[in-house]
Amino acid sequence: MTEQTPPTPPFRDPQLPFAKRIDDLLERLTPDERISFLHQYAPAVERLGIAAFRTGQEALHGVAWMGPATVFPQAVGLGATWNPELVRRVGEAVSKEARAMRAHDDRVGLNVWAPTVNLLRHPLWGRNEEGYSEDPKLTSAIATAYTRGLRGDHPTYWRTAPVLKHWLAHNNETGRDVTSSSVRPRVLHEYDLRAFRETVEAGAVAGVMPAYNLVNGRPNHVSPYLREHLRAWTDEDLLVCSDAGAPSNLVDSEHYFDTHEEATAAALSAGVDSFTDHGTDASQIVGRLKRAYEQGLLTEADIDTAVRRQLSVRFRLGEFDPRYDPYAGTGDFDTPAHRALAQEAAEQAIVLLKNDGLLPLAPDTRIAVVGLLADECKLDWYSGTLIHRSTPLEGLYEQFGAERVEFAEGVDRVRLRTSQGAFLHVPLVEVADEVRGAEGALDPALLAGRTDMPPLTTDPTGTELALIDWGEGLLTLRAPDGRYLSVAEDGYVRASADQPGGWVVQETFRLEPHEDGHLLRHVGTGRHISVAADGVKVADENDERAERPEPFELVFAERGEEAVRRVAEQADVVVVVAGNDPHINGRETEDRTTLRLPAQQERLLRAARATNPRTVLALVSAYPYAVGTAALPAVLWTAHGGQAAGTALARVLSGEVSPAGRLPQTWYANDGDLPDLLDYDVIGGRQTYLYFEGTPLFPFGHGLSYASFSYADLAVRVEDGSAHVSFTVTNTGDVTADEVAQLYTRAVEPSVPRPRRELLAHRRITLAPGARADLSFEVPLTAFEFWDVTGSGWRLEPGPYDVLAGASSEDVRLRTTVLLDGDPGGPRRMLQRGLPAADFDEQSGIAIVDRARVSGDAVTPAGGGAGELVYRDCDFGDGVTEVTVRVAGEGTVELSLDGGPALAELALPTPTSGPYDYTILGAGIVAEGVHDVHLRLRGPLRLAHVGFSG
């Protein structure tokens, strides 16, 4: 008798639609198996032949954290290219490398957590390097391109499944898990949601990751916006992955829920499908979910919905159809094409900010290259390990010849003398070949934290150290052989790191004045350095030495400015390479405090400029600076450009490549131009190029070229729901170059505050000398709409709109005005709708908070003090005789019209029992016709709604 082959279960049948296959697989999973899938590390189900699965693989500008990979420019640098097609190719290369790496290492995931589409509203945000732009249109264009590259172009299967970060209104690291972003409806819809929406609607997004912060008083991980907005934008099953540790924050730091069972159930119900918490230990989350289910906080349908979304991603990645997966055999890794693309991206990201004719440099120019970053190729927290590297110094050697280039890092060289007269000494070590990278560089992953290397000691002569000052009192110390001083878990100080890095950077120190010398404090542990018989270490908190730390005298062998002057006076041109280390002063968990360039780098720049006026400043940084440029003939900026950064910079300096990067965010002239870091009201705070009324150091979209371009023949035709815009651009220079043509609009007679300029479209083009490009754009009329709080919807206001074409938001070459038809709107109908409290036109001293834990907004005086709200054009019809307010907490609401005397004062006689325990207060008033309503709030109350009756 022949044994029959068991039938193939439907979930394994590639001929069936994914939805039917997922239904079948769900039915086969036990309740415990389903719940186990909801942790980041979903276990294998051996009885069904299902492998383990992990959500999350960092891939912001290359495959990160998994060892060697192609490293592309930082995300803000990719934004500076203004080139979606280039960024699509970068995404394609990254996803190919993820597939190739996974074939040899199953730790590499295909559900990639990238890109970051948080808007770069505030340049002091520590994670500025991770976003693309301050503008939602540019951000969505670049993000859409990257996700399309990551996804691949097969109609059924995805190469990788991209997840957008971080939902929503997340622009501060300071208190990021407990602070709330107060986001009024217009800002929510016109700004923060927009970059996410346009990218999701483009169809290449697998999901989103909520941010750590709260929005309007409610943690993003229980945000109703996930349901109300995100999932309404697409029919696809979007996977929502929590940020690491955020589910526990709902109780532990935010205290939003009393128990983890309540919190986990609320997050799942709101739309979180995969919980990233407690690392690889799934037991905590699984236990919470099981108890929440047993307590009736979750239903089986809630769990199945989340598992279904996760399985949808896994099916789209081809996990269940290995024979049909077109990407299963992808092996493209560190290919010549990827290396060339990394260089192309680095070149396109460079922005020429100023040029008085000094650039490009002639081939026979004698160059002095100086600065802390002159011989560095810096990585950030979300980089892979370099296979290839190129520093500015190396690039200039290649481009101009080593005999024409002189180098001075410009750091102070010091020895540290103890109070006993001895000096700190770095023992010599032989670094084994296995800790060196492909080109001889030390591998930080193999050096950092090592305890098998000898700690520092003291001796009569000591070791000369490079003292590198990164600003704000933070410094690093480097031995002559390139090893940075670091502190391992055992507390000893060793020269054991190739670069500063890690989640907690163990290579940074502070010098604190003490009597006639300094104390040396290790930042990572917060403890002072002490000298013991067995070596130099951080003082143990239980050790008596902690009470009397070792004072050091700094004995200078050379000041950095001296070295700069020495090479600058012999050169035709000085190139000062300044900027930041991405692990220090501005990174995840750490916002900056100033736009200023670090003081030591300012001193180096002044020394170079005073010695040789032909000085070029090349800023290599993850964010903008406010730096004086008046006396400098040439200034460039690039984000940290990945493995080809130095080659790219040298090719631009030499003129082999004409720069065409454009600023993706405003560069402000000083700190006084900035709003408070936690002021998320871009409209009321007049923030970003959209609303900023001051004079920027360099405006949004700015960037110069070695060529010149003329614009002509602007025409606009409105039909079929779109504005059809065309104009021509001609290269009037003598070199082939790229130009980034930018199209903006401005409402001429708006009834509410509208942007000064708003990007509609852009295009990067390459033109030979004398060549002309005829550009055309189809702009949907929805791009001219604004969010009308009087009707809680989008509205195209009729009237004149300027259409502007040019080379930046301020360099407008052509303009015309077009009349658009639309909805004239009208005053607010007080009897029909009243005033939802958060739908104000203006506010002072007000924060938006959660009306209830589940949904809705209310307003409250910031800090529990006093605040004022203004609602324009409120129509009371033939008259009203009563006002009611829905309030909770304690305090008073005072109402007036048009800024006149108070008509009513409504006070809570006693505090309500809780922040969500609302009551209705009423008072008689007399009002008719159209007026501006002013509300003055005093005390820690929440106002949800104001109603009127006649």
Automatic annotation (TrEMBL):
- What's its EC? 3.2.1.21
UniProt-listed Gene3D superfamilies: 2.60.120.380, Galactose-binding domain-like, Glycoside hydrolase family 3 C-terminal domain, Glycoside hydrolase, family 3, N-terminal domain, Immunoglobulins
* Keyword annotations of the record: Glycosidase, Hydrolase, Signal
Q: What domain of life is recorded for the organism?
A: Bacteria
Family per similarity comment: Belongs to the glycosyl hydrolase 3 family.
Q: Which PANTHER family match?
A: BETA-D-XYLOSIDASE 5-RELATED, SUGAR HYDROLASE-RELATED
Put simply, this protein is called Beta-glucosidase
